[in-house]
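Cross-check.
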Amino acid sequence: MQSFLEDSLKYLQSKHGSIENLTIIMPSKRSGGFLLNYIKKHSKKTVFAPRIISIETFIEYLSGINIIDTTTLLFKSYQVYLTLDTIKEKESFDSYSNWASTLLGDFNEIDRYLIEQKPFFNYLSDIQDINHWYLKEDKTPLIEKYLAFWSSLDDFYTKLTTQLLKEKTAYQGLVYRKASENCEEYLNTNLEKKHVFLGFNALNSAEQNIVQTLIKNSKNEIIWDTDNYFFEDYGHSASLFLRSYKKKWDYYQNKTFSFINDYYTKEKKIDIISTQKNIGQVKYIGKLLSTFSLQELEKTAIILADEQLLLPLLHSLPANVQDVNITMGVPVKNLPFAIFFELLLQIKITETSVYYYKDVASLLNHPFLHKIIPTATKYISEVKMSNATHISVEDILKGIGESTSVSIVNAIFKPWKTTQEAITNCLLLIDNIKEFKHTKLDSLALFELHAIFSKIEVLNNEYPYLKTIKTIQQFYNELITTTTIDYQGDAYNGLQIMGVLESRVLDFENIIITSVNEGILPSGKSNASFITYDLKSHYGLPKYTEKDAIYTYHFTHMLQRAKNITLLYNTHSEGMNAGEKSRFITQLEIDNLPNHTINHYNVAPKITIGKKQLKSVNKTPDVINRLKEIAAKGFSPSALTNYIRNPIDFYFQSILKIREIDEVEETVAANTLGTIIHDTLEILYTPLKGSLLTSEILKTLKKEIHPEVTKQFKKTFEGGDFTKGKNLLIFEVAKKYVSNFIDFEIKDIQAGNEIMIIQLEEKLKAPIIVPELDFPIYIGGKVDRVDSYNGTLRIIDYKTGKVNQGDIEIINWEDLTDDYSYSKAFQVLAYALMYNHKKTITNTEAGIISFKNLGAGFLKFGTKEKSRGPKNQVITQEILTLFEEQLVSLITEICNPNNPFIEKEL
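Predicted model, tokenized:
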């Protein structure tokens, strides 16, 4: 296989003879290194190498300006923001930093695409003004402030860029603009120099201007890397940019668009592998590589579309892989020490004189603290046993013992009174931790973490805007996301592992690409910008369609010269990942070129399942005494249905009181969401008890949804962050559920129905006579709502999950206690029975309101004689008697000392 770099080198040597006087500009430093290696490899004698530089280095040289990092830029830009006369009320740095990165990103794009900023910002300001035209003279101070901000953008941009250029530093886009302005002068003073642009695809306007200016001189040229198959297909986005240059550049009006190869349609073996979960991908790769010879490994590259797979992949490499070159670094954010500081800063945001025990546990349970504080695990167990929910620093020091490093505990748990003290304590912690023995990777991680907090300290000393721990956390998260630990090794020998961008201009005979899933390759739509789609279109700024075309080019380029291609994708649907194969795979299947042999394999782990030994627990006198305690307090409907599902679970949870470990929730759990919605509805509706609901009153409740849901989240999801990510989505879901429910009731009332709340979250308890047992039996629980609906009493249970009408209907009464799928019907009947003990019921309905199936309305319990037969949905005394018979039978079975708890095979 002849690579693009080898083709280009051969061409340049044939054209120029000696290439030592060339300046070769490439997309990245990495690709330049590979070219240099090819020069060494193909040179029969000692030669002087040409000057090989990345486009970014060349741009900095042209402009005479250094590119500033994004964190420093944010601080400098806030300094400028404070000087703007057009913005009267300045926001705090905390608030500013939430939106400024997006704005600075837009400034960057405007400069990269050489847009004249003043008319552009005027246009953008006018759009915002038009969006609020309907307010006319009634604009609130907030709207006025908002519009004033948009009208100040030109002033902000001008002052910021002036200040940066004065300091000979700038963000990337501004450096590109200045380089573009200087390129004509550079060309005139370097007429004898020979420049070659090698392997580019998507160029911004500044890059296009620079390239076109330089190639006007015949000594300079650009060498593209595309395939005739894509270039001639005007509907294919892989050559979208190159076709545009051929059409629009003056250079090509009288010159041929050359350097189009014809490799893609040649013979290729393409294996498309579907796996369950990401770990399945790396395990398959390990097995595949174990069949490769050393010579084959030298010609192989693994491209990680999802770079999170790097560490699992390294742990899966087989023994025959002796040399590996990894072009990407290990993300520090995924390493244990980085996660520890993330936890620490999160906890310190809401710091008080005492700590919530789960926060203390999350820190003390961290692996590295186990080395330093060996008594940590024992102490956390003691805290849980003592049922203490909040712990002071003194309690922690006393609990873990005097022998432990007091300075580390104080640095973690003593209050941080200032942001400088917070930074100092983090640096002190790192210095203390370094004294203990660690792996090389952990030691390097500590070095990088020290550098991060030192950088934050330097910035805070120069620009004292960090007023809160939350802001420190924000910058820590930003810096840690971009920090990696690089591997050392031979860059050009052995198996190559790299990301998609690192593969630019490189070619390999054997290509393995992971995570070829929709949303990863290509990535999904993202639009972190204040610039509207129409404005981007008008000014030629890149939209997601152009970004999609870039991914298409990268993907097809990886396949272009390869002979053996393995594409892996994850079929597992989880969270935000849909488990959908990429459209790139679909396109390969549709094209189905004659020389492409496409094979499909579904890889699943081989799992040997042994016969499970079902547990059986006899009822000892102690167990019977515990059952008597539960009976006296009252069997809850959920405990009884838990027994129906699996008696052994009832034994562990109700008899032994073994619950699931109460871990700190990183995302809101389903039961937490249910609690929040139940409690919100209780607070909102309690003032309305005893009176008829009206649509007007319910509409006023809607104004209270946001503050009440916020309050309940803070109470129930204590210490959790629900301002971003999945938790923010769940927060919005909670508000939507409550809002939809109130809208549902408004619609019901407007249809002429009368609703009156009788009880909310009422505790109920009722005695049950069990002839075979000689101790008192009760059932007890809390019913979500009792109301009157057009004179009919309704006993209602809320469910945040989806429930269908069929879930609460029965044909055979025995099914209630034999089959867990009837658990919802069992529960509503239990509430009806308990309410009947309080007040004899007539003309009553019991059922469920499902927030995920609100359109179905109130789902009533019903009995019927056959599957599609007529239903009886009225709760009568006869119905309650039939249910009580089943309940007595169930409780008799539970409390019978001769019946062991026998595990069910679920």
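The first helix runs from residue 4 to 16. Residues 661-668 have pLDDT under 50 and may be disordered. Passed to J.P. for a second look.
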